[in-house]
Q: What sequence folds into this?
């Protein structure tokens, strides 16, 4: 395989999803200066999507009009899909990740799912579906749910199991903290330290 053909096969499609921006970009090993600058701009937006063009330009040593032009092009071509606010959902309500094992998918399931997607994800006073996924492995489907009422979650899951034939069973995981930013510097780290010292607790209980 000659180097020119090899280069074509070495194009990589990269997907990134962060708190500020969701984007796709195609990165070629044979990149020109414009492609390299676009990549550097995207990296800055991934770090902080609220940065102004002037701030990014100053950091990268590029004219701010050039930064603005590249960002506009990336938005028009659909590489930058949008910007979003990063919320600490677990401080608003309880967050749960629900993992489903599935039966074979039927046409009836397809019609029901299509109808559900067209209506958008459930959002009520006591329960909000943040996102849903299909995957492979032990669990083939998952939803991320935000709720203030555990009984609402049970009711919602009962609805899903009875409504969609392909959903067989589920496991529920409660999210206590999403990342280091949301960990309380004293209270939470002390709790994590206690998790490490579980052997000491077991020893003390035996002595009693």
A:
């Amino acid at each position: 395989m000659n180097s020119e053909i090899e280069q074509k096969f070495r194009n990589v499609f990269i997907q990134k999803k962060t708190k500020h921006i969701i984007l796709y970009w195609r990165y070629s090993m044979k990149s020109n200066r414009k492609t390299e600058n676009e990549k550097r701009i995207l990296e800055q937006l991934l770090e902080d999507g609220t940065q102004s063009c002037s701030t990014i330009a100053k950091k990268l040593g590029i004219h701010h009009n050039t930064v603005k032009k590249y960002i506009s092009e990336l938005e028009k071509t659909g590489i930058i899909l949008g910007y979003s606010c990063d919320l600490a959902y677990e401080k608003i309500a309880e967050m749960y990740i629900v993992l489903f094992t599935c039966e074979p998918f039927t046409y009836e399931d397809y019609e029901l799912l299509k109808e559900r997607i067209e209506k958008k994800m459930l959002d009520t006073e006591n329960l909000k579906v943040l996102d849903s996924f299909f995957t492979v492995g032990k669990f083939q489907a998952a939803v991320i749910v935000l709720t203030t009422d555990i009984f609402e979650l049970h009711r919602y899951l009962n609805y899903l199991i009875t409504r969609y034939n392909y959903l067989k069973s589920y496991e529920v995981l409660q999210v206590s903290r999403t990342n280091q930013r949301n960990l309380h510097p004293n209270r939470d780290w002390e709790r994590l330290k206690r998790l490490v010292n579980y052997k000491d607790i077991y020893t003390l209980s035996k002595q009693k």
Summary: Residues 89-178 form a domain with the Alpha-Beta Plaits fold (CATH 3.30.70.920). Residues 20 and 47 are 8 Å apart (CA to CA). Residues 1-31 have pLDDT under 50 and may be disordered.
